[in-house]
User: Fold this.
Amino acid sequence: MSFSHLLLHLCLLVAFNPQLLVLGNAELRALMDLKSSLDPQDKLLGSWISDGDPCSGSFLGVVCNEHNKVANISLPGRGLSGVVSPAVAELKCLSGLYLHYNYLSGDIPREIVNLKELLDLYLNFNNLSGTIPPDIANMTSLQVLQLGYNQLEGNIPEELGSLKQLNDISLQHNKLAGQIPQSLGSLEKLRRLYLSYNNFNGTIPAALADIANLEILDIQNNSLSGTVPSALQRLREGFQGANNQGLCGDGFSTLKACNKDTIFGVSQISAPNISINRIPPITFPKPVNTHLHCNQTPCSKSRSFLHLVIAASVTTTVITLISSGLFIFVRYRRQRQRVRNTSDYSEGQRSPYQPKEFYRSSSPLVNLEYYYDGWDSLADGQNESGLSLEYLNRFRFNIDEIESATQHLSEANLLSKSKFSAVYKGVHRDGSLVAIISISVTCCKTEEGEFLKGLSLLTSLRHENIVKMRGFCYSRSRGEWFFVYDFATRGNLSQYLDKEDGSDHVIEWSKRVSIIKGIAKGIGYLHNNEASKPIIVHQNISVEKVILDHEFNPLITDAGLPKLLADDVVFSALKASAAMGYLAPEYITTGRFTEKSDIYAFGVIVLQVLSGKALIGGSIREAVEAFRFEDFVDTNLKGAYSKSEAAILSKLAIQCTLEVPEQRPTMVEVIQELTMLPNPSSHSS
Assistant:
């Protein structure tokens, strides 16, 4: 057989046997092994095929670098139910492995430590077991280690402290035990350390307090003891240490104060069946254990003196307990009364009804994050206003989910920012896009019952023209509320106004008519009194508050949001509305919003959509009233609009913006008028 025939035979063999291609490509082989282990039923990773090209973009969640090497595998929330294969270690150039929010089980493969280029390892929110690989020190490039919310056991490897690039370690909600390694104190770039809900014991390494970049240290719900380094006070709410029975610290709102014995190291002395550092702290020095023999104590005292010490201790303990009980009762009563708003205090002062560390926060809801289920559940699963907290918990996200969705609230994900809030684009664990609004707790209402009613209302709003709220999150450490909504890919309506001739952002006439109808339906839903919700006045409807999905369907945002915000914040937001002409004339004299206030704003929006202009001046109004379409209809349409429809919409806009509110139509009447419009047409008539 000639060489040419042999070569042809080999080519045909490879062409009809894709498995040989796999054998010849180490990365492709590793991906196919990984597919088999992650998706054993072969239902979720069908795009990973043995004769495919991982770098072609056809492999779900696989991204390659400029050298055509696999650089990222991103499969969060895909329902994967297998195990992580050791074959992942064959992807030598992998820099990001994102397998969080799945159902993966088994051990973390020890071979994973050979990924020396890996920057981000996200295996959190799975069912992984076993231990953290002790050779993790080989992963010298690792910056983010997310292993929280699994079933991991054993200790934190001391070698973890040699990964000098680490800035985020999340090991919370596992079954880890032992002491927190001293070596973690050498991680100079560490910003966040989450160790809560494990079985750690011993003391907090003093070196952790010396990490200049440290922002969050969450060690709550463990069995730690000893004194918290005072330098950690600089973290303020970034330090979480509650529910560690033997832990104390002065100046930490979630910890008991240290008594003098603890400060001078006496708490480390113990006798059989007695643990001095488990005794509740009091403000007076405790006597040495009276059950010890004299030759076991540092010094010898007479029996009479010993009796005197016992009597004094009992007396002071009783007085302290009575005082503490009275203090707790008075404080409880004060927190239940809206005696005064803490915003009345200057920045240099604090309200007497708040702990020192919280003086900048005007919301009593700052304690919510302390509870495992997220809420301070009272009897019957309701709070004092009668709301079901169990219902609200169904919409609750945690801060890990928010940070994971937005790449730790990075600037790259920031869509907009104002004086009171910020909006981030995020990726939900199911792979869908979300918009996440962050609002400082100081901008929210201070009365808990009132706030929870507003929050319950927001979660209940369901209409095709109202943007859907998926849930919320309260971060005590950040002092912020986060509200998670569906993401609209076309942006808000204001982006389509004031466009130059030839712009790609000009909306055709039929879509404009459809948008106006959709906005009317959304407002009509808010104004309708239903069993599931009361009448809601939006108060701040504008083109900025209308977003468009991929099919240009309008979605009204911020519906019901004023019910969560402090009055001064709501008032400040109205300044922009007034400047743009949305504010109804009667508000200036009455200071009250009604359904007719929303009707007026809707009329302004109709004029904006018809004219393509953000500011509606007197000349446009005159042209509308005279039905001079050529003087007010958007010239970017180049005449491609229906004059009959323009006439109906112009008349409607005039009626909605009448100065006397009683003369304006209701939204029911507006919708009825809009249903009489002819079928949308893209041609003039």
